[in-house]
Amino acid sequence: MTNRKAAAEGQRRATVVDVARHAGVSTATVSRVMNRNYPVSAVTRERVEAAVRELGYVVNAHARALAGTDGQTVGIIVNDVVDPFYAFIARGVEREASAGNRLCLVCTTQGDPKRELGAIELMQERRAAAVILVGGSTDDRSYTRELARKARELDDGGMKLVLCGRPSIGDEVPTSSVEYDNEGGAFAITDHLLTNGHERILYLGGPPALSTTRDRLAGHRRALALRGVQPAPELVRTGAFSPAFGWRELSRILASGLEFTAVFAANDMVAIGALQALEEAGRRVPEDISLVGYDDIPAALTVRPRLTTVHVPLEEMGRRAVRSALPLEDDDAWRPPAARRVRLGTHVVVRDSVAPRR
User: Fold this and answer.
1) What's the distance, Cα to Cα, between the start and end of the chain in Å?
2) CA quadruple 94, 97, 100, 104: dihedral positive or negative?
3) How many Cα atoms sit within 13 Å of 199 on the Cβ side?
4) pLDDT digits (tens, 9 = 90+) for 114-131
5) According to DSSP H, which parts of the chain are helical?
6) Sign of the CA dihedral 227, 232, 233, 235?
7) Before 286, cis peptide (omega within 30)?
8) Mean pLDDT in order along the chain per 10 residues (358 residues)
9) Would you give the DSSP letter of residue 201?
10) Phi, psi at residue 289, to the nearest 5°?
């Protein structure tokens, strides 16, 4: 082909068909050379690569990913994209995946385990390189067995299931996991309240069957026990992870006359609703009631008083989830391979919503 003809074809973006015709090979051979997923002779590879250079062919990675045939997709399965906890993890996943020219597909489950399993199956059909399952899990043996089965199916197909922010389902199951010190964060924030003299601490929010809630309650109770404070069952009120629950439940508790000097909201969203309930009841934070949250979402800085909370490295969790599942590129080969199990730290961020007990 003359340079003039190549230039003419370059005016309309060259396709894989153009490259195949120019190199005198099939389109399948071009794909094998570009994807490096099948042995091709050195002579053929040189012809194809020369044609790619001459025609200025550029691989459309997103189009390939949407086709769902080459492992260029990363699937993210979350409870809800509106909740900042999930949103910031998803942002970390998307940024890390985009850096590797991969496309992200997001599915939401609204906390339904059946929808979660269905989303994994959908990602499997699309040949996603990694399926990242975000957030706590329920303690259901049949669900866990089915999840383990799907993890094995993904692994058999060269794909990887990543558990992000949830416990392992067994060392023998082929998954990667990125966790955070959930129980340790709850222990630390409870101890912060105890050292400020608060012993009647109301624990508020979090679905009781969720692993996230179980771990946070375990850390809370461990801190109480270490300080010799007897746990009071009436001071544990689990429920949703939402501002509406925080407002509604705390309004009822305040109206009932239950005595407490501090509130440990199970996440910052619950704390925002609790803050509204306290304000409406004429209770000042922190002068009358101290209040803490969990997650350290941006809203913790914008509410007044600024919220003392537990920082969780949400975006970094998303990035680590991608790294744990996908192979390193050639230019990153100097880095050590990602660990199969990663646990990130948490820490208390002290702001303005806690004061010593009066």
Assistant:
1) 87
2) negative
3) 8
4) 999 999 999 988 889 999
5) 3-11, 16-23, 27-35, 42-55, 61-67, 84-99, 113-125, 141-156, 182-195, 211-226, 243-256, 268-280, 299-302, 314-325
6) negative
7) yes
8) 44 76 84 69 88 77 51 89 94 92 91 92 90 91 93 92 93 94 98 98 96 97 97 96 98 97 98 98 98 97 97 97 76 55 96 96
9) E
10) -135, 130
